[in-house]
Amino acid sequence: MKNTFTFLFLVVLLIIMQANLGVAQESSEPYETVKAPAQFNLGADLVSRYIWRGRDYGNSPSVQPNISFSVAGFKIGAWGSYGLAQSTKKINDTTLVNMGHYAELDLYVCYTYKWFTLQVTDFFFPNPLNANDGNKYYNYKNATTGHTLEGCLMFAGPEKFPLQLCVSTFFYGADKGKDSLGIYGAGSTNNYSTYIEAAYIFKLKKIGVDLKPFAAAIAFGSAWYGDYAGFVNCGLTASKTIPITEKFSLPIYVSAITNPQAESVFLVVGITL
Is 264 within a domain? Predict the structure, then answer.
């Protein structure tokens, strides 16, 4: 598996680019999958905390860059998150360990047809103290890799019924089950951790605010989410675009989040550049 996902990532990118060239040369009957023109996008978010699926990653404000290319329903891209301050991990009542600046780099490829999107993501977390120490990027051996591959099926309803659903399962890499002591993540076999989320968007057009309540649960224990089945990520996100000048506006959002299983709560603000 060494270099496999990176190789596939580049192959898919080349295929998408070739498909785009082929579409440009076709001048006969149009068809549904080529209505959207090719797009190249880049941007970044600034967040007060990086909270993902009910857990705090980095315990620090973070910058989250992204870049993507899409055409004919296909999309390929990269997303990252980098802590702006060093984080610590509590080992016991008297010991704190410096964890460095949190770092994450994810590659993904997806295909969208009407309301459905199928996506495969490669999650990777470089060593925050030394990026080349103990977690080699090109190691894709299932038993030792720092990569985790996930398949995700998403549904995003139309404006009249803006229901959002997501079912995600890790299927390869750093998602292991229990060891002999019953500790998730320390075993030798894949756990296939599965996360299920539902959300609904309410548009308050008079004040220009979107409200999105959401709730997510897991069906069984996981080192990623929690030790047993139950809700792990619930909350409400309010988003609004604030005009700055005639040509520039600033999207901003605030999320109130709780993880019932971990008994934790967060209030996060983010802006999109």
Answer: no
